[in-house]
Design a protein that fits this description.
Pfam families: CO_deh_flav_C, FAD_binding_5. Keywords: FAD, Flavoprotein. This is Xanthine dehydrogenase family protein subunit M. InterPro entries: CO_DH_flav_C, CO_DH_flav_C_dom_sf, Diverse_Substr_Oxidored, FAD-bd_PCMH, FAD-bd_PCMH-like_sf, FAD-bd_PCMH_sub1, FAD-bd_PCMH_sub2, Mopterin_DH_FAD-bd. One of its GO terms (molecular function) is oxidoreductase activity. This protein has a five-stranded antiparallel β-sheet with strand order 4-5-8-6-7. A four-stranded antiparallel β-sheet has the order 9-10-11-12, with helices on both faces. Strands 1-3-2 form a three-stranded parallel β-sheet, with no helix packed on it. It has helices spanning about 10-15, 30-35, 75-80, 80-85, 90-95, 100-105, 110-115, 120-125, 165-175, 275-280, 285-295, 310-325; strands spanning about 5, 25, 45-50, 60-65, 65-70, 175-180, 185-190, 215-220, 225-230, 245-250, 255-265, 270. The relative contact order is 0.13. The protein is globular and about 60 Å long. It has a domain at about 225-325: CO dehydrogenase flavoprotein, C-terminal domain (Enolase-like, domain 1), CATH 3.30.390.50. About 25% of the residues lie in helices and about 20% in strands. It has about 325 residues and is α+β, with helices and mostly antiparallel strands. Bound molecules: flavin-adenine dinucleotide and iron/sulfur cluster. Flavin-adenine dinucleotide binds near residues 108 and 213. Flavin-adenine dinucleotide binds near residues 25, 34 and 213.
């Protein structure tokens, strides 16, 4: 690991105003330290935000049906919150099914949504070709690499790396908003606008400026007791999703009044299946309708020989998640 400076500012304002080029925030450190050891991320300065203002950004607050969560809330704390589990189980499921207990205890939800891809060529600097790590160098995955885990939605001819996280699929489905403290003061951003497609610039993963600090996530309408996160992976623990679905339903008798769908393991960014949602709204909650919506969700998929199975797997995951959600109380 390369030498770096370490700062521990007392306040969020100090963290942002004293930010210098080459610095990087560090919350639980479970992504940062990995990537620094691998020499993929090389910050000259680490800004430790884990203890900012004695826990001011570690909170879970309900106000009616609105939920606001501090960005420094540990994954475990949010996953284990009784009200969250009862009122919006997909948020809790997505965290419980991620990583390991030790990582969930250390990691904070702000760092979680900004975790980097697990593409092996991104994480191994002995590969020269990686447009995400080294813009313009090519893509070892597309150039004959192993692509079983790569994305089938939102890809470009420059990068097909999968967005690896789970929690973000629930946030995007719930229309979450990201609260940010930047050099010009506080602002907010739709969670759906936080991550960007790889297109020509896979190295640019979010719309944040380097000094932007995420301080909270808010969800105006978080009351979805009939919701779940279904994650399919190679082994049942401590593995990233091959395909996952965050699904939420509101029923009016037998008719779907509202539906939310976030797809994981299959796309380059947290993926909202809006067209599939539109096809379901106002119709019956049947397996045939869910299968039709899944076809719509994956209509634009682009595959390699090795990851083509993700289209069928992704559809089946979505249908099963919706069927199980429909059987829930709510
Ligand atoms: C072996 C292993 C298995 C894993 N499995 C899964 C899994 O199955 N599912 C899953 O979802 N995740 C998984 N993870 C990823 C893990 O959940 C993330 O590493 C973790 O959530 C990141 O949070 P952190 O607080 O440690 O972030 P850090 O490592 O501290 O930071 C991550 C990034 O976010 C930035 N950052 C952090 N906080 C902020 C903030 N408030 N504002 C602005 N920038 C910020 C940092 O600069 C850095 O770039 C796994 C990780 C490991 C090591
Ligand atoms: S898929 Fe993306 S991250 Fe992986 S090697 Fe290609 S450019 Fe790099």
């Amino acid at each position: 690991m390369r030498p770096f400076h370490y700062d521990k500012p007392a306040t969020a304002t100090d963290a942002v105003t004293n930010f210098r080029p080459g610095a990087q925030y560090f919350a639980g450190g479970t992504t940062m330290v990995d990537l620094m050891k691998l020499d993929v991320m090389k910050p000259a300065r680490l800004i430790d935000i884990s203890g900012l203002e004695k826990g001011r950004y570690d909170f879970i607050k309900w106000s009616g049906k609105s939920l606001r969560i501090g960005a420094l809330t540990p994954m475990t704390k949010l996953a284990d919150d009784d009200k969250v589990r009862a009122r919006v189980p997909m948020l809790s499921d997505a965290l419980w099914l991620a990583a390991s207990p030790q990582i969930r205890n250390m990691a904070r939800i702000g760092g979680n949504v900004l975790q980097r891809t697990r593409c092996p060529y991104f994480r191994d600097t002995s590969y020269e070709q990686c447009n995400k790590r080294k813009p313009g160098s090519g893509c070892a995955a597309l150039d004959g690499g192993v692509t079983r885990h790569h994305a089938v939605l939102g890809t470009s001819d420059k990068c097909i790396a999968t967005y690896p996280g789970d929690f973000a699929q629930a946030l995007v489905a719930l229309d979450a908003v990201v609260e940010i403290l930047g050099e010009d003061g506080p602002r907010s951003l739709r969670f759906a606008d936080l991550h960007v497609l790889p297109e020509a610039r896979p190295d640019r993963e979010t719309t944040l400026a380097p000094s932007d600090l995420i301080i909270a996530f808010s969800i105006e309408d978080a009351d979805f007791p009939r919701s779940k996160y279904l994650k399919i992976r190679d082994r049942e623990s401590y593995a990233y999703a091959l395909a996952s679905t965050a699904s939420a339903l509101r029923m009016d008798g037998n008719t779907i009044a509202d539906v939310r769908l976030g797809l994981g393991g299959v796309a380059t960014t947290p993926w909202r299946a809006r067209e599939a949602e539109a096809a379901l709204r106002g119709g019956p909650a049947t397996e045939a309708q869910f299968a039709r919506a899944a076809d719509i969700a994956f209509a634009g998929a682009s595959t390699t020989d090795e990851n083509a199975f993700k289209v069928e797997l992704g559809k089946r995951t979505m249908v099963r998640s919706l069927l199980e959600t429909a059987r829930m109380e709510g």
